[in-house]
């Protein structure tokens, strides 16, 4: 592919505006979320693909800051096994960019039938998911034409941050409202690191992408993007899972990409992991983590300077830029990866 721009790159650049619109539209719903959540004790996230990675962020956020047990659903329990589960006291949060994935719509309906209250997070105004939920958080990303999710993903994260605030998280809403400006600053001066890292990854067949805590969601989403658009055998693993054996796969042909916020309790461990990978003779690259992570890596892409709880919304942006650049470097069209469409139906 010889073009220097793509729809994906243009949509990455649209994220600050999409986030501003989404926060403006959804922040007034924190009161309604609090009212809906008052009759519930725990949260069940229903999602697939990129939306499932967003749910990982939501799960960490609610458990760390809202005092709510949060888990990820197995939709096949509803759609394949048809099992009945007591979901009294559960808030089921179904996440789908289009709001038209039948498996997610059906699983949310199943959850309601099992006694759950329901929230939809979707970019699909008037979609079946939005219409069926007790309350819909409709993001304002606008139409997304490139198949790899970028602005629909980050606006989902913003919606989940609003959900956390509505459910009583003791966090500063001003820090969330500062996210669009921070991402805009990053996009205005991304530096040369993205091009350099794309060159280093171009010859390798695979990579391990790892993060811990809030940043784990970014590691999973970054790995998914590299698989979708670059056909790289990228494994998204948590910090702990990587240490429990799979670290043996990291070598000269399988570098590690480690993701972290610029501060927070998981940063020291992530930097220590980078040093361990490097001491084993394998390349190690960073996304975010400030000077602490950069000093332990062969090359690091700076992330926006955000507190840990909002950092995943910004940390995915360098990974999106890297994916788009690497796809073009390899001669692939990042807008239309083979075998993929915007809506995936699971039978």
How many individual domains?
Answer: 2
N-to-C SSE string, H for helix and E for strand: HHHEHEHEHEHEHHHHEHEHEHEHEH
Largest sheet: 5 strands, parallel
CATH architecture of the largest domain: 3-Layer(aba) Sandwich
Whole-Å distance between the termini? 34 Å
Percentage of residues in DSSP E strands:
5-15%
Q: Based on helices, strands and strand pairing, what is the structural class?
A: alpha/beta
Helical run tally: 16
Overall pLDDT confidence: 94
Helical content, roughly? 40-55%
Shape: globular
Name the CATH class of the largest domain: Alpha Beta
Could you name the ranges where pLDDT drops below 50 across 5 or more consecutive residues? none
Could you please say which CATH topology of the largest domain applies here? Rossmann fold
Tally of extended strands? 10
**Spatial order of strands in the largest sheet:** 2-1-3-4-5
Short key terms for the protein model shown above:
347 residues, alpha/beta, Rossmann fold, 2 domains, five-stranded parallel beta sheet, 16 helices, 10 strands, globular
Q: Could you describe the 3D structure shown?
A:
- This protein is α/β, with parallel strands linked by helices and 347 residues long.
- It folds into two domains: 7-177, 3-Layer(aba) Sandwich (Rossmann fold), CATH 3.40.50.10490; 188-329, 3-Layer(aba) Sandwich (Rossmann fold), CATH 3.40.50.
- 47% of the residues lie in helices and 15% in strands.
- The protein has 16 helices and ten strands.
- It has helices spanning 7-13, 15-26, 30-37, 49-65, 75-79, 102-113, 128-132, 151-166, 173-177, 179-188, 193-201, 216-230, 239-243, 267-279, 290-294, 311-329; strands at residues 42-46, 69-72, 90-96, 117-122, 135-138, 206-211, 233-238, 256-260, 284-288, 299-301.
- The chain has a five-stranded parallel β-sheet with strand order 2-1-3-4-5, with helices on both faces. The protein has a five-stranded parallel β-sheet with strand order 7-6-8-9-10, with helices on both faces.
- Strand 9, helix 15 (290-294) and strand 10 (299-301) form a beta-alpha-beta unit.
- Helix 2 (15-26) packs antiparallel against helix 10, helix 8 (151-166) runs antiparallel to helix 16 and helix 11 (193-201) crosses helix 16 (311-329).
- The longest helix is centred in the C-terminal third of the chain and has 19 residues, at 311-329.
- The protein is globular and about 55 Å long.
- The model has no long low-confidence stretch (mean pLDDT 94).
